[in-house]
Automatic annotation (TrEMBL), chains A, B:
Organism: Phoxinus phoxinus (Eurasian minnow)
GO terms assigned for molecular function: chloride channel activity
The name this protein goes by in its record: Anoctamin
Cellular component GO terms held in the UniProt record: plasma membrane
UniProt keyword Membrane, yes or no: yes
Places the protein is found: Membrane
Amino acid sequence: MHLDLSVSDSDVSSFTPLVVLELADDTKAEAITWLLNRIRDKQQNGGAELLVDQVLLPVQDGQKSNPNVFVVGSTSQRLLNGAEDVGLFKESQDGTMRGFTYANRESFRDFEGDGQAFLSEAECQYIIKHELDTLRAKHEEHVPGYPKLKLYPGKSVVRRLQSKGVLVQYFPLHNKEDLKRLSFSWYKKIKLSFQPLDDIRRYFGEGLALYFGFLEYFTFALVPMALIGIPYYLFDWEDYDKYVLFAVFNLVWSTVFLEVWKRCSATLAYGWGTLNRKKAFEEPRPGFHGALGINPVTEREEPVYSSSKRQLRIYLVSVPFVLLCLYLSFYVMMVYFDMENWAISIYTENPNVASGILMFVPSIIYAVVIEIMNLLYRYAAEFLTNWENHRLESSFQNHLVLKVLVFNFVNCFASLFYIAFVMQDMVLLRQSLATLLITSQILNQVMEAFLPYWLQRRRNKKVHKRMRRLMGDKELPLLEQVQLEAEMNTYLGTFDDYLEQFLLFGYVSLFSCVYPLAAVLVVLNNISEVYSDAFKMCHVFKRPFSEPAANIGVWQLAFETMSVIAVVTNCALIGLSPQVKAYFPESETQLILIVVATEHVLLAFKFILAFVIPDVPKHIQVKLDKLEFDSLEALKKRKILEGAETGKYME
Amino acid sequence: MHLDLSVSDSDVSSFTPLVVLELADDTKAEAITWLLNRIRDKQQNGGAELLVDQVLLPVQDGQKSNPNVFVVGSTSQRLLNGAEDVGLFKESQDGTMRGFTYANRESFRDFEGDGQAFLSEAECQYIIKHELDTLRAKHEEHVPGYPKLKLYPGKSVVRRLQSKGVLVQYFPLHNKEDLKRLSFSWYKKIKLSFQPLDDIRRYFGEGLALYFGFLEYFTFALVPMALIGIPYYLFDWEDYDKYVLFAVFNLVWSTVFLEVWKRCSATLAYGWGTLNRKKAFEEPRPGFHGALGINPVTEREEPVYSSSKRQLRIYLVSVPFVLLCLYLSFYVMMVYFDMENWAISIYTENPNVASGILMFVPSIIYAVVIEIMNLLYRYAAEFLTNWENHRLESSFQNHLVLKVLVFNFVNCFASLFYIAFVMQDMVLLRQSLATLLITSQILNQVMEAFLPYWLQRRRNKKVHKRMRRLMGDKELPLLEQVQLEAEMNTYLGTFDDYLEQFLLFGYVSLFSCVYPLAAVLVVLNNISEVYSDAFKMCHVFKRPFSEPAANIGVWQLAFETMSVIAVVTNCALIGLSPQVKAYFPESETQLILIVVATEHVLLAFKFILAFVIPDVPKHIQVKLDKLEFDSLEALKKRKILEGAETGKYME
């Protein structure tokens, strides 16, 4: 069926291509026909009512390239209806954010003519993704041509094709012009300025924009701490004379920081219309499997997997595995300390340059090992969480995040805790902290941005050359773009980025009172992080589908937990400081009791503070209340009118 | 206008009277006419569309009784519409709880004929209250006859009349038959059984039913602890040998107890239809005042009081006042200890019976003083919170609860903490705990139930006699009932009842490891509490308006806070116990560090447990999800149909 499409741009220019759909190159023709028909079919008939066309990529170096690549687009009318389906919030004429409805389209700001420019491209792509995801099987028993790909009424077709590898991938296309404009205002300007969060959100969606917002906020919040840290470091206050003050500052800072972020994030999310948007019903994730049963919520047939079985897997396999890994991590830590001692003993025997350098070797090796262990553990955690067979993507993510967080936390901080509280050696603590921080930052930047960029550039050049060779000088922007982007790496979400920030937050809030330069290093790292992350989003990865998000989700909890641990750690560090000890020369017991009491009071204060500071700024809360009030009033009015009519009929 | 109503039952029997409205006896006739018209007026015209009639009470002992007493009722059609207004949830034919709508009335279980028996009496009274409360001024500038009682469009008429004392009170009438049936199944049966929570809810509403449910749950939860406590006490394990075990039990118990209650409460609230019911927009409370301005949410004119002024009042007056009271409470405590020492010194000088009894006198006096201080403080807190001028009843209540809780906690427990941790005298702790517990229980039962009951009975007899004298043998059930109930005390809500349970929970969870009989005493107290509370609800107080509630609200938080404090206290008590100390004969420091570490682990475990246990049982969650899914699907279907129609038009 795809043979009648010639390789030319004119065929696919009948609509703006937004999303690319790549099927396996050996997909059976009847399955393709069926899928395309379902995508094109009217909504009343259960179709997605989208436009779809084939992109026939040229033969490459004698090898036939994958012929089953399609681009999907839509009419603007269909997109507007879709915007209503997904529950998009838009700014209305009176300045409040309201759920978009096609019937009231004229009451929204920026709605002009037939609404062609009303939705951003990312929104359009998100809508198309939603419509594809919710394209459901009707009465087909299996995918045509694939008797083993069972279907049941209500099953998402795309999820099923995806879970069996027939659908290789689907991704939104970049928009070169917008991208150029965005990347200029984002990271190519020489003038330092805030990030263009609204533009980022328009291009990449709310989830990513919130990440960059958080990154920026975190970096700015660290500046005062960095400014205080520099004189501490420069004037070499090695006698820990002032670090009690610094610890107290740390403690207040880490609490206020997170509470204020919640308010900032609510303000951003309100402006982007995600704060009060209702969550849609979540589909089972593609990998979810089980015997066919009845879902008690939807009353549709779907795979069912008993939650007690999942609990068993979690508590009998995953939890012991995580504990084993933690034990391993401790073991590695002890080996590191042995190495450290060995290096010191060599240095004390032969204090020369070589043995002086050797002193740093164990720390560097340990930092590298930590990174490797984190990486390996990450794969294991993904495998295990997958095997736990969670029904929802969100619950899969939560379990994955939890596993990875606990391990990363222990792996990265165990040695520091050991040095601080068991060995009580503040000089070593400072040295280890510096080595860990610097090594992991360098590794991160290399692994995260430069390596993928370098690989990507090589690939780009190859594709570009090949296309040139095949097509001569004919302009083939779309074909080349599809070809290029299909081979780009997929951005796996903000997980790793947040994880990195989480660990940096840990270094700063837990121990920066012994190494005040930590905040400075983190600020520097984050400034380069903004640029490298921005760069990688624009040039290294496929464009990700925009992800509506009202907050940073489970990460808020993770950061808050860290800040509670920070209170405990800082109090303990204060208790260990020589000049506090000097106040209680006779009774160590009294010192400990006072430190513990202070810690409890601070923790209580922290919880009260978190309770007292409202999570949503007042002016946003008023708008939310107004929205709710208006809808209640409208409902009431309608009822009274209906009541009056009923009354008339009865009289 | 009320002169043409003769004192006879026939006039008011045209409808079932549900609510009594009592205006001041010098209310101007034009105001009464206006109010009655507004109540009777159709909804389209902004009226409440209710039935209202005058009850003319007979002349009493030469004094004219208040002529301005009215009974309010309604047609069942109006009540069903009202049920939709207030967003009542009812069980539908398929067993799920759904928001009642008049249009779908046939799809609800128990809806028969014209739906006369569909709503419970308490629900009808609640609906009438809601309709009266939301009866709003139209274009009147003031209440007719009262130029000073300013009105503005949208102001609740009833609230305004209430705030200026023109409306003395309004309350629902008891239903003698239902009450007899309820009180029989509740507390008059000899057979021990669970309380009839559903019947209580049907008669008194969800708020009260949840209180009694909590009381029952709490009492049952205490039984295992009481059972363990008895042998501890009987076999005189005075050497504190076993109390480490008891403290650990205590700790786990207090965490699990509260988590499980959340699930129980969710189950109850779901069955009663309050779990997923939307909250209506809250009116300003009657006492709220301020300059007339525009409410940004409703965009209606209403009194506005700047929240920064309120904050100033809270932080500059209320907080210092509370702190002063706390200081006073400490001062009284120190005086108590002086008295205690004095009593002991007398006993050691002259050990005879009189001085032996004298030993107990300071504790008893202190217990009485504590109760008196609590009472006085309560008035002060109410005055202050009123003066803070909160706009909403809910925020008023929260601030009041917070003030009272903090003071009561310190007032009741300060001496125990002092004895336990400063004096470290476990014998005295045990003795004080017993005295405090027993004295406060006796005082409570007397103040709460027997005294009001006795007063009430005297009043009842007087009214009964008077009525007899006036009317001879004529039967005047309604008149007498209105007269009797109007003079009954008003039930001020569950505040004091929860507060008492909160303090009892404190005694048990904080210190019961030193006085294991505490749990036994609390169980006994609570059994009698159920009876006396049930009795007072049925016979001492006016029937309260039913209060829809999905949970025990701020009290859940209060109990949880207490259980966190309990972890700290129990760990400290364990640390102080001689046999734990015996393990660390040399190093007290090590002991303290281990206790502190244990405490931190336990607290972390507690938070994880609270996080892991879902707040809503799975079968309820499924039903909630189903409801949401159904409404989403219905919306989608409607849109597709509409879309199809639009499509047709466009074609």
